[in-house]
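One thing: mind reviewing this one?
=====
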Amino acid sequence: MNIVAIENTIPFTTKDESEIRELLAHRNSAIKNQSLAEARVAVGSSTQEHYHVLSEEIYFITQGVGRIRIDGETREVKQGDAIAIPPGARHKLWNTGDAVLTLLCCCAPAYEHADTVLTE
C-alpha cells in the first residue's frame, strides 16, 4: 500500500518553472502509468508555455484564480475547475489572483522532464 502525505514530499521546479510536489508516480509507488502532483504558481507568476509529446494532463484548480492558454485559446480558471490538456497541446498558466494558485496535475504517462518541450 502506498500513501504519501504532501508534507513529506520534497518540492522541485519543473522544466516549465512551476513548483511541484509529486505525490504518486513510478518513482515512489506502485503506480506505473500516470502521476499525480500538486503544482503551485506564485502570485504574479506563470509557467512557461510548453507541451508534452506523450503525456496528457488534467489540471484541477484547488486554490486561487488564474488564466490558461491552450493552443491559442485563453480562458479564466478558478478553484473547482478541471482542465483537459491533450498531448501536443501548447499550454501556459498564469496566476492572476492575490494568493498562490494551487492545482493538482495528473499526467498519463507520468510526468518526465524529457517529455516537456518549452515553446517560449
In short: Residues 10-118 form a domain with the Jelly Rolls fold (CATH 2.60.120.10). The chain has one domain: 10-118. The chain has a mean pLDDT of 95. Residues 55 and 108 are 5 Å apart (CA to CA).
